[in-house]
């Protein structure tokens, strides 16, 4: 029976997925296919490139300075880049360099497992799934958060973050033949939303509604022969503090990894 790992988006909160991968590795749960979006495309590419060593590789990556460099810079430098570009705060080159240096594969053909990641086409206003060709540009396209990073151009077409079209792409895994799906996510779907009370929260809440709606629609339409395991992050059930969605906040990375590992290991042990 085909098993898929589906890795969702969520910026720096993607550290939760690293803890889940550690728990899955220790439980000897191995995927046949890997599907990812946004930061889940980064984590998923490592899983597909090195299934046995991905959890260790990603733990080192997330707990080191590599990912921090991708969104480094002072307020002044970010403001200057925005003034020059008119559209984004950060260069995508540090993230590209990190992937070039750390990923043990350069092309989809080099991967040990089938892997697909998704990005949002600007020109076609639709999803594009990448499954062949150079790996790093496809992952970058899936991670190109609007306003933070510039769109990524591939073959004359421009792409933004895959979370805009598929935040947790369970449906894609099922289309590829998966009958057992393990969902690795960042914890947002575990907690109810509350009405916004500040202007800056309005957009975040609206986006969360859209992304969660797609997830719940796919979950409600599962075929009878498909089993989905939504791994727990170990977080609380209280409404999410939207300040925790700040993309440069790195202080909770280690705690998020460990908490998700503990919760997911317990979940898997109970079902062994």
Describe this structure in words.
With 272 residues, the protein is an alpha/beta fold. 42% of the residues lie in helices and 14% in strands. It has helices spanning 15-26, 39-49, 54-63, 66-70, 75-85, 93-102, 135-143, 170-175, 199-220, 253-270; strands spanning 3-7, 33-37, 115-121, 126-130, 152-154, 157-160, 180-184, 227-230. Strands 1, 2, 3, 4, 5, 6, 7 and 8 form an eight-stranded mixed β-sheet that branches.
Which tags fit this structure?
10 helices; alpha/beta; 14% strand; single chain; 8-stranded mixed sheet; 272 residues
Q: Tell me the overall shape.
A: globular
Beta-strand content estimate: 5-15%
Number of helices: 10
Mean pLDDT: 88
Q: Helix share of residues?
A: 40-55%
Distance between the termini: 17 Å
Q: Which consecutive residue ranges, at least 5 long each, have pLDDT under 50?
A: 237-248
H/E topology pattern: EHEHHHHHEEHEEHEHEH
Tally the beta strands. Answer: 8
User: Structural class from helices and strands?
Assistant: alpha/beta
Rg over alpha carbons:
18 Å
Note the main sheet: 8 strands, mixed
Question: What is this structure's SSE topology?
Answer:
Layout lengths: L2 E5 L7 H12 L6 E5 L1 H11 L4 H10 L2 H5 L4 H11 L7 H10 L12 E7 L4 E5 L4 H9 L8 E3 L2 E4 L9 H6 L4 E5 L14 H22 L6 E4 L22 H18 L2
Parallel strand pairs: 1-2, 1-7, 2-3, 7-8
Antiparallel strand pairs: 3-4, 3-6, 5-6
Helix pairs in contact: 1-3, 1-10, 2-3, 2-7
